[in-house]
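Suppose you are handed a protein chain with no further information: no name, no annotation, nothing but its sequence. What can you learn? This example shows the usual starting point.
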Amino acid sequence: MGGVIMAGGSGQRPDGILATVNDFAGLLTRQLRADLRELPRRTQDRLSAEGRAARAGSIAELRAAAHRALPRVVFDYLEGAAEDELTAARNVAELRATQLRPRVLVDVSAVCTATTVLGQPLALPLIGAPMGLTGLIHPGAEIALARALHGAGSVPVVSAMASCTIGEVAAASQGPLWFQMYIWRDRGLVKEMLRRVQAAGVSVLMLTVDVPRSGNRNRDRRNGFSVPPRVTLRALAGGLAHPRWSCGFVRHPRLGWGNLPGDPGGGAAGAATLSANTNRQFDPSATWDDLAWFRGQWPGRLVIKGILHPGDARQAVRLGADAISVSNHGGRQLDGAPAAIRALPTVADAVGGDAEVYFDGGIRRGTDVIKAVALGARACLTGRALGYGLATAGQAGVSRAMEILGTELRTALALTGCPDIGDLGPAWVQSRPPGT
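A reasonable first move is to predict its three-dimensional structure. Written in structure tokens, the prediction is:
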């Protein structure tokens, strides 16, 4: 009771408080000096593509960065889907609703994510999905995508609607390429395209069969999206608000489709909507006989993309498909189609071991890959996730997207108690039964 109360009632002597303040001031001074010495390097890193990419810790953060980097009309083209965009949202939501069933006390000190697709080794069960007109997102987009995917031990699928030609991409690439085609009206053009694809060294053709005509994409309609883009006051304002994108667009413009001949805007008629261009090229009368025709024209491996029904999958395999890609076109065609993850198990069961099965629809996390592989996919295709990286930082952004997904996948496999992705099966997931 007779003790002396020191300053502030803390029981600490004044000289002790002074020493503490001096220690803190010294620590702060040293940190400030170190920060000032590092400021030029940090500023350079922050402004570099690699720095922009590295700041993203998830695909969602890459998406936010892409939203800041792109004019609205371009971001909406990348992000948008058909009509009310229910199927696009459902792709992601149904993946989230599918639950993992982890096992414990399993040795996961070494985790393997490697697989093969049609005999080609992959470091991750991830393939770069075909995307059209990506030159609007970043100059030389398909080349950047190919280099980043090859660097990650993956394979890109170059779209027939790509901004770069297949020859350009092949000349700049250091690994295998796949090529994606549609069923076009002009079979002479198709034959010429297949000839150029073979000449580029491509051995795998992916035929997309779910586009007899273009879906109703309301974002593109509201934005007046056309090919080539129309220069309007709104477009100019969007460009001024996004100077980095505008600089790349002006220096290296990619205004149309590299693999299609002539003016994509329809010659003297000028720019046309994406829907009008698509409907002019695509064949709404195509049937299974046309798939048989493609099989006869193409000597390499054939992947059929856009399958949701098990009966269609069986028919495609009977006609010579080497692989089936379960896909609803990212929700960009028929709004109201089922989520791709809901269609995957029945298609995988229908195909059995007669063809490989891939999954395309809503991959945003490493756990999404686990769920798809467990439900029957040999590998997954991802498009928007890579598009976000491309918009954020070009090739470095795509590499970062693959790095994020790969890191998440390895962590999730360990936490799930499955050290080898090849061991996954239906017992590892708990999904809602069809119709619920």
